[in-house]
Design brief:
By secondary structure, this protein is an alpha/beta fold. It is 35% helix and 20% strand. It starts with a helix and ends with a strand.
């Protein structure tokens, strides 16, 4: 079978105006961005929503991922194959994983959004605009301190880092302002990856330019010498930041390899941030299609929980159905098989790892959203392994559908599409968020740890304990929480795979994202600036004299 990029390059794309025509867009409702991409007008948000919302989530992944984006895209294609008006709605890829370990996020095989090279690289410049707006604020903070510091900002209490859309562990902790008085005030600082920026979260959760500006003004940048908080509004920087984001807030329209319309917009990480595409893109899609297929980052313990408790709460969304993606290789991985041995048949390990699927099923079931398990087929999966998964699902009253969208495109997901239509149209969803935001911060954290992760204890560092006492005094307690946690385990230890029992979660820091409207709880040793592996994917990527790209995945 051809590589992902070969399939994407061979796809017969329709001119973007034909994709716009499929959605009945007027000329003033979209702006062409080259031949194959477009920006959509925010005026579309005034239309009446009519679509059914379908969430695609997954079991805990292997380091390479389990094809959640592939199933999302393939399901959208399959819905169109059974003559349903469906739209795919996913996140934009970050350059960090593209050149690091995981690869891109444009799907795979015959279930991809295209032009794949553009989407996985600079696309329409949204990530760069967010990076620039973020770093403008960082520059303004340092300049204010250098130029007299009338706000009395304590340089040692600045909480706003810089960002870069690349994995670079060397930038996690730096010192700025070195080289003498002309170069600023020396202080410790650092970089996060752009996908972890609060501005990324804001872009993905606001619903208008006015709300964007208001949210930017609420960003906490640091504290004074008297320990009083300082905000963007104190600097007066929200106008310039909003200007840099004026095009980035508009959702992007592209298509799949089968010419299904796709909105690709926003890209917060699922383990560090809230892991969902923009609320504006999702709501826009609900006005344009009868079925909207979206995804949330990593497993149900991360992406789905944040989709339910942050995105749906903020946007007053009610998912109509869900898909839980499972793979045989991930079951074997969570059953104790090393990555290098996952291509070998191992029914015993598969059975052990199936407990991970059951745990994720409990998470989705608890939300009240009807769902089905999609067994995402890989070429090395054996008939015996597939049959054993079906038997295990039957034993535990889980409906499972074998899905082959990677190899067959939409045709490989028709059975899944037919069942999802039944679930979405049944009106059986009884969605409810997990917790009441008016609970204490500690109660909300414990709700996620005990009910979602099924841990037995939450531990707080001294720093986190002080924050639990201080934030209610500042009025920051009635917010959802965003758990920053490893994607490989329900615990905060990535080596504790499968379905561990009796574990505790350690909250080491609680960072207010007041503009985004949630509190980020850092667990274990989770990093907001990832590093690269020993052999980064970048070393396999190339472009020839004719401009043909190879190695991008």
């Amino acid at each position: 079978m051809p590589s992902d990029i070969e399939i994407a390059q061979a796809a017969k794309l329709l001119p973007i105006q034909q994709i716009a025509a499929k959605l009945d867009l007027r000329e003033d409702e979209w702006e062409p961005y080259g031949r194959n991409k477009a920006k959509l007008s925010l005026s579309l948000l005034a239309r009446q929503a009519r679509g059914k919302l379908i969430l695609v989530t997954a079991m805990s992944p292997t380091p390479a991922g389990e094809g959640k984006s592939t199933v999302t895209i393939g399901l959208g294609q399959a819905l169109n194959q059974i003559h349903k008006n469906a739209i795919v709605c996913i996140r934009e890829p970050s350059l960090g994983p593209n050149f690091g370990m995981k690869g891109g996020a444009a799907g795979g095989g015959y279930a991809q959004v295209v032009p794949m090279e553009d989407i996985n690289l600079h696309f329409t410049g949204d990530f760069h605009a967010i990076t620039t707006a973020h770093n403008l604020l960082a520059a303004l903070i340092d300049n204010h301190i250098y130029a007299g510091n009338s706000l009395h900002i304590n340089p040692q209490r600045v909480v706003w880092k810089r960002v870069l859309d690349m994995n670079d562990r060397s930038l996690r902790n730096i010192v700025t302002g070195l080289g003498g008085p002309a170069n600023g005030v020396p202080r410790e600082a650092g970089f996060d990856i752009t996908a972890a920026s609060e501005i990324m979260a804001i872009v993905c959760l606001v619903e208008s330019p006015g709300e964007l500006k208001q949210a930017l003004s609420k960003i906490l940048i640091g504290y004074t010498y008297d320990e009083n908080p300082v905000f963007v509004s104190d600097l007066g920087a929200e106008g310039a930041m909003a200007l840099l984001l004026k095009d980035a807030i508009k959702p992007n329209l592209v298509q799949t390899v089968e010419n299904t319309p796709a909105l690709v917009h926003g890209g917060p990480f699922g383990n560090i941030a809230h892991g969902c595409n923009s609320l504006m893109a999702t709501k826009m899609a609900l006005t344009l299609g009868d079925y909207v297929v979206t995804e949330a980052g990593f497993g149900a313990d991360l992406g789905a929980e944040k989709f339910f408790d942050i995105k749906c709460r903020k946007g007053a969304l009610g998912p109509d159905a869900a898909v839980l993606v499972a793979t045989i290789r991930s079951m074997k991985y969570h059953g104790g098989v090393k990555v290098k041995d996952l291509h070998h048949e191992n029914l015993a390990a598969l059975e052990r790892g199936f407990d991970n699927v059951l745990h994720h099923a409990r998470i989705v079931e608890r939300s009240g959203v009807p769902f089905v398990v999609a067994l995402n087929h890989f070429t090395e999966d054996t008939e015996a392994e597939v049959n054993r998964v079906k038997e295990l699902c039957a034993k535990h009253q889980l409906e499972v559908i074998l899905t082959k969208v990677w190899a067959e495109g939409g045709a490989g997901g028709v059975h899944l599409a037919e069942r999802i239509v039944q679930l979405a149209d049944s009106g059986s969803s009884r969605f409810e968020p997990l917790y009441d935001v008016n609970l204490t911060i500690e109660e909300k954290i414990r709700a996620v740890v005990t009910k979602v992760y099924e841990g037995v204890e939450v531990r707080f560092t001294d720093v986190a304990r002080r924050q639990l006492r201080r934030y209610p005094e500042l009025g920051w307690d009635n917010l959802p929480i965003c758990m920053a946690k490893t994607q490989y385990s329900f615990s905060d230890n990535p080596k504790l795979i499968g379905d561990p029992k009796g574990f505790s979660i350690t909250i080491r820091d609680i960072r207010p994202s007041l503009g985004a409207g949630f509190l980020v709880c850092l667990t274990g040793d989770i990093m907001t600036m990832p590093g690269m592996p020993k052999q980064p994917l970048a070393l396999n990527i190339d472009i020839d004299e004719a401009g043909i790209i190879t190695g991008l995945s």
